[in-house]
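Lab meeting minutes (informal)
Scribe: AK
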Amino acid sequence: MTSIEIEALTKAREQLAKNRLALARTIAASADLDLGTIDALTTVIAAIESIDRVLLDSGHPYMPGSLFQETVR
C-alpha cells in the first residue's frame, strides 16, 4: 500500500470519526428514538472498523495524530 493510499484512508477514517461523534451527540440529545440516526451511526462505525482492518492488514495501523507525534519525538 502506498503512502498516498494510507493517507487517504487515514483522512477518511478521521472524517468518519467526526461524523460518529456528531451522530452520537444527536442521539444523546434527542428525547425520541430515531432509528434512522441509529442506523447511520451503525454504518459509520462499521466503515471505521473496515478502514482500521485495512490499515492494520497493510502493516500501518491507525494512530491518532497526537499519539503519532508523541511516538515520533
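Next up, CB showed the second protein from the same session:
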Amino acid sequence: MAKKTTTLPIAIDPSAVALYTITETAPPRIAGRRLEVDQKTIELTESQARAELLAGHIVPAAPASNDA
C-alpha cells in the first residue's frame, strides 16, 4: 500500500515578490492566475515569473519615481 504524503503550504516571503507589467501578448492566465480584464500589473516571485518573462508575457515594472 502506498504511503500517504502530506502537502504543506508554501509560505512566500513578501519581500521576495516583484511587480511585473503585463504585455499585450499575454494570455488570459499568468503563472496560473486568471487576469482581470483591465489588469496591467501582477506581483510574482522570481520562480513564478521565470517562464512568463521568457515568453514575453510580462516585463519588470519600472520603479516608481518620486520626483518632487
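CB comment: The radius of gyration is 16 Å.
No objections, moving on.
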